[in-house]
Amino acid sequence: MDKVKVGIIGCGNISCRYFKMLREVYNNILELQACADLDLARAKAKAAENPGGPGVPGVKAMTVKKLLADPEIKIVVNLTIPQAHYKVAMKVLKAGKHLYGEKPLTITRAQGKKLLALAKAKNLLVGNAPDTFMGGSIQTCRKLIDDGVIGEPVAATAFMMCRGHERWHPDPEFFYQVGGGPMFDMGPYYLTALVTLLGPVKRVTGSARISFPTRTITSAKKNGTLVPVEVPTHVTGIMDFANGAVGTIITSFDVWAHTLPCIQIHGSKASLEVPDPNEFGGVVKICKAGETEWNEVKLTHVADIGRGTGVADMAYSILRPGRPHRANGELAFHVLDLMHAFHDASAKGKHVIVKSSCERPPAVPSGLAKGELDK
Ligand SMILES: NC(=O)c1ccc[n+]([C@@H]2O[C@H](COP(=O)([O-])OP(=O)(O)OC[C@H]3O[C@@H](n4cnc5c(N)ncnc54)[C@H](O)[C@@H]3O)[C@@H](O)[C@H]2O)c1
Questions:
Q1: Pocket-testing residue among 20, 65, 81, ligand 1, by greatest number of atoms within 8 A of Cβ
Q2: Res. 375: pLDDT tops 90
Q3: What is the spatial distance between Cα 318 and Cα 75, in angstroms, rounded to a whole number?
Q4: Taking Cα atoms as reference points, which of 246, 146, 252 lies closest to residue 205?
Q5: Any bridge partners for residue 8, and if so which?
Q6: d(CA 217, CA 266)
C-alpha cells in the first residue's frame, strides 16, 4: 500500500508520543518525513532522536516554511500550543496539505468555522485530537452501548479534577491563558468520549470560576515563577444529549484530591464505568440491574496504541476517498462549541442551545490486530 508522507510542526512535550506511534505502529500507512518548530534547535533534537532504522527512514529537521513547501508531505500534524493552532493550521491548509491538529481545534468558534470552510473549499481533510476514543477501552464501551447491553442511556457523569499541570509541565503558562484552562485542555478527552458513546449534545448550562488569580510553577525549569490566570480553572457543566440522556461534567485545576470516577454511563439496564479517556486502555466495568458488584469487562479492541492513531485513520481516508475518518473536524468543532457553551452559560446565567452537531464517529470494528483500523 502507498504510504502517506507526514510532517510534524511543534516538537515540544507531547511530540515524542507521535514520533513513536507514527514510526513504530502505523509505519505500514504513514512515513514521518520531517519535523519543524519555531525553535529549530528543538526540531533538530527530535530528528536526532529519530534516525533511520529497518523499514523506517530518518526524520529531517527543517523550518516550518520548508516543511510546508515540501510537495511530498501530504499530512501536517500540528502539535503547537493552543494559541498557535489556528495560525499554523491555516498555513497548512493554504499550503495544500491535509491537517491533523492537537486539541483544542482552535480557540474561538469563528476560527474553527473558517478552518473547516477552507479545508472544504480546498478538498482537504481536517483531523483533530483526541484520538484516545479509538482505543480499546472506549471502543469496548461503545460496543456495549451499541449492542444494547446497558439499555437506554439515561445519564452520564464525567470528572477531571486535579491541581493543575504547573507541577510537572516544563512550560505550563499556556494552561492558564485563553485557549487553556481545564475545560479546553482536558475537556476534549471527556467530551469526545461522551459524544462517541452517546451522540451530540443539544443544550448545556454551566458554572465556572477563577479560583486563584495566579499560579506558581513548581516544575523544575521554571520553579517559583508566577503565572497570571486568564481563564476559569473550575468549570462545571450540564448537558442534554440529543438522545435524551443528561450528562454532568466537572473539569478543574483547583482540586487537590477526589475519589470520583472518570466517566460513568447509566442506562435502563446497567451502569457502565468508562476508564480515563486520556488513555487508550484501562479497566471497563459494568454493574447490571439487580447486581450489587461492578464486574470487569474484557476489552474487545486493541488498547496498547497511542496518540497518532487518528493520523493513521485519516491517511486511510486520503487513500480511499469517501471513507469517513473518526477523529474528524466536525467532531472537534462540536466539542469546541460545547466547551465555549459551558463558559457562555456561566457568564450569562442561563442555558445555551448548542448550534453545532456531528455524527458519532464510526465505531472501530472489534477483533482487529494492533495497527489495523478497518476490517
Ligand atoms: N503535554 C502533554 O501532555 C499534552 C498531552 C496531550 C495533548 N497536548 C497538546 O499538544 C499541544 C502541544 O503541547 P505540548 O505540551 O507539547 O506543548 P510544548 O509547549 O511543550 O510544545 C509546543 C511546541 O510548539 C512550538 N511552537 C509554538 N508555536 C509555534 C509556531 N507558531 N510554529 C511552530 N512551532 C511552534 C514551541 O516552540 C514548542 O516546541 C497542545 O495543544 C496541548 O494541548 C499536550
A1: 81
A2: no
A3: 9
A4: 246
A5: 35, 77
A6: 39
Q: How far apart are CA 266 and CA 224, in angstroms?
A: 44
Vertex 188, ends 212 and 157: CA angle to 5°?
Answer: 80
Residue-averaged pLDDT of the chain: 97
Q: Does residue 71 have a cis peptide bond before it, meaning omega lies within 30 degrees of 0?
A: no
The finding on whether 38 has its CB within 6 A of some atom of ligand 1 is yes
Q: How far is the CA of 284 from the centre of ligand 1 (A)?
A: 31
Contact 187, 251 (CB under 8 A): yes
Q: Quote the pLDDT of residue 2.
A: 83
H-assigned helices in the chain = 15-24, 40-49, 64-69, 82-94, 109-121, 136-146, 181-198, 309-319, 329-348
Q: What is the layout of strands, in order, in the sheet containing 352-353?
A: 295-297, 284-288, 270-274, 263-267, 153-161, 246-252, 234-241, 201-209, 352-353
Average pLDDT over residues 205-218: 97
Q: How many C-beta neighbours within 10 Å does residue 144 have?
A: 21
Q: Which residue out of 13, 19, 68 has the highest number of ligand 1 atoms within 8 Å of its CB and is therefore the one to mutate?
A: 13
Kindly report the pTM of this predicted structure. 0.98
Is the CB of 131 within 6 Å of ligand 1? no
Cell digits of residue 9: 510542526
Cell matching residue 199: 451522540
Residue 1 confidence (pLDDT) above 80: no
Q: Determine which residue's CA is closest to atom 39 belonging to ligand 1.
A: 12
Radius of gyration of the chain (CA): 20
Confidence at 106, pLDDT banded by 50, 70, 90: very high
- 203 three-state secondary structure: strand
